[in-house]
Design a protein that fits this description.
two-stranded antiparallel sheet, single chain, mainly beta, 1 helix, 6% helix, 65 residues, globular
Length: 65
């Protein structure tokens, strides 16, 4: 399942210039390779690992069978 999310705050990955802007919407994927990913609502967004409360879900897309 794909997600469209909006981060609650801005993020910057140092020392690179990779950022997440809290005013933009991003594609995210569930972090199924992380322990307790469902319990904590873990997702990956452009290399950032975010947990529930650090993002707002804008839309969910279920894969067609």
């Amino acid at each position: 399942m794909g997600l469209m999310v909006k981060p609650i705050m801005d993020y910057k990955m140092c020392p690179s210039n990779v950022t997440l802007d809290s005013n933009k919407v991003y594609i995210a994927v569930h972090a199924t390779n992380q322990p307790d990913w469902e319990k904590y609502g873990l997702i990956f967004v452009d290399g950032f690992l975010l947990e529930r409360g650090e993002y707002e879900i804008v839309a969910e897309h279920k894969k067609a069978k």
